[in-house]
Amino acid sequence: MANELEKAITIKNAIDKIDSGDFLLPSIQRRFVWNPIQIEFLFDSIMQDYPINTFMFWEVEEDSIKNQFRFYDFLKKYVEYQGGNNHERKTKGYKNFKAVIDGQQRLNSLYIGLKGSYAYRHYVYNKKIYYEDEVNYPTRKLFLDILSPIENHEEKKVYDFLFLIQNEHKDESISRVKQISDENGNSKEIECFWFEVGNILEFKSEHNVITYLTKENLDISGFPGETLLKLYKLVNEKPIINYFLEQEQDFDKILYEFIRTNSGGTKLSFADLLMSIITASWEIGQSSKGAREELDNVIRQIREFGFTIDQDFILKTCLVLVGTDIRFALKNFDNDTISKIKLDWSKITLCIKESFQLVKSLSFNNHSLRAKNSIIPIIYYLYISDFYKDINKENKHSDNKKLIKQYLNISLLNKLFGGSSDGFLIKLKKVITDNGISDFPLANFKTTFKGTSKSFNIDDEKLDTILRTSYDNLDSFYILSILFPKFNFEFKNPNVDHLHPKSQFNYETYSLLNADQIVFYNNHYNTVLNLGLLSEEQNKSKNKSPLKDWIDKQLVFSETIKDHLLIPENTSLDFNNFEEFINNREIKLKQIIKENIV
Questions:
Q1: Band of pLDDT at residue 538, cut at 50, 70 and 90
Q2: Rounded distance, CA 447 to CA 96, Å?
Q3: GmrSD restriction endonucleases N-terminal domain spans which residues (predicted)?
Q4: Measured CA distances, 211 to 203, 204, 238, 388 (Å)
């Protein structure tokens, strides 16, 4: 462990060391993830004299460590749509420095609050598209209202720290008003004086603080004076950054200290810790980028296809492709496995990208491909067969593409990748390996898993259950996304709605029905059989209109509206004909699903 508790330093001293490059972040650290509210609470805690816990630093002196491993600068300006990506600091031939092992989020938050900025989305009611620019993601600085404390805050917050758009305040020294809620929950206006927190670093003494307060006609002996003087002392004079200093130059020891430290109270996923090991072991000589940047690049490229994946998915895929044990465990990311991943990284990333491009061409999207792990066997198949080289070329692998589409539809409809899927993936990998470079082994999957809970069989009884999924069940949207593969999810806001409106199914409208019909209506109106996937505009125009009336109006603008909504032809849309409508639509929906799974 660290040798001993070092002499505490001030926040200003820590900020200066970040600016001078004396404090850096090792590659095993995850990105900056704190949100503005967490930063505001950190500053409030400091002002209320709460301890902010001890930090752990590592004194880096050995050239071998500086040359072999990557280190990063602290994040100076956080921009939400860019994520918390830090700039790399080249440390070959660099001076000795301290790497932060524990406390990165807190220390980086202090820097952003005092010298940096935080740009996050400027929410506008009902706005759907936010462009990645200053207008939609304005830069904000941390301010403190030094005129009025917060009263009766449910989480005992006293000091009103707030990230504000700087150009909203023509001059932070102008008294303004803000909205607050009183003890009864009623809104009222009070005066405020927003002080930019970072300006406290410019004051050289308490005398400067008093001069500033006097100039701005603020009460020196009251809350403004007490608050600003306290902020000055806590930032510039009081040594509140306590830390242990590890001086050993053994990177493996540091790595396991990091894992033990961060797997406790800090909310790190185990994948984050595994990523730390890979990042630390990804030698600079293998690539101009580190492991973190390489994974970010793949995630970004897959997003361009319209799919969302994360580092967990890529790490799991790497284990399936090159490992023998695919569980997230430290022993499975040994040096040999990491070396294999690095050696084959180009092929691995190509297989991932080609697989998602293939899946997109087969009419799947991020909504219908809900279980992302279902694509890992496809990636592995392309990997061992080398079919990734031409799988997406026209007039190539047509039979394979049909089999892969059937596999995905069956897997997703049967929810085969629900819960923990490691054991299932291992068995699928073995079947694919044994199959070699033949066609995609869907038939072998069906044989291997016949009669098990992971069966690839979908019979009429199973289809009956699927199509009777309730509107209230989250699976209904997923089933409809498979039935409506051509729906433009990227540019249209999808609405799941009843074709025959729900409002019609009540005892007032049942007056002409017999008892058996009423039971049928009640059992089917709220299922997939009476649901459609509509654009937001279509749904608004439909509202509670009877289906027949609405369709008649839509036919004026679109002759294909019935086909688009999978409404069977030659079927009356009158409410009293609901039973025939459901029976005929069930035939049509079953046919669509069977065409995709047989």
A1: confident
A2: 62
A3: 11-278
A4: 10, 11, 21, 70
Residue with tokens 């996923």: 269
Contact 387, 400 (CB under 8 A): yes
Question: Residues with Cβ < 8 Å from 506, sequence gap 6 or more?
Answer: none
At 578, is the pLDDT very low, low, confident or very high (cuts 50, 70, 90)? very high
Residue 492 near residue 535, CB atoms below 8 Å: yes
Residue 425, exposed/middle/buried by CB under 10 A (0-12, 13-18, 19+)? buried
Closest among 160, 220, 219 to 190, alpha carbons compared: 160
Token pair of 533, please? 């996937």
Amino acid letter for position 584: N
Burial of 475 (0-12, 13-18, 19+ CB in 10 A): middle
Neighbours of 181 (CB within 10 A): 11
Instruction: Give the integer Cα–Cα distance in Å for 536 and 541.
Output: 9
Is the CB of residue 12 less than 8 Å from the CB of residue 236? yes
Q: Rg of the Cα trace of the chain? A: 30
Cα separation, 530 vs 468, in Å, equals 9
Could you say which DSSP state residue 3 is in? S
> In which element (H, E) is residue 438 found?
none
Place of tokens 């749904």: 539
Per-residue tokens: 63 = 């050239």
How does pLDDT run across 457-499, given as a tens digit for each residue?
Answer: 888 888 999 999 999 887 888 788 788 877 765 556 678 889 9
Report how far residue 587's alpha carbon sits from residue 584's, in angstroms, rounded to the nearest whole number: 5
Q: What are phi and psi of 175, to 5 degrees?
A: -65, 135
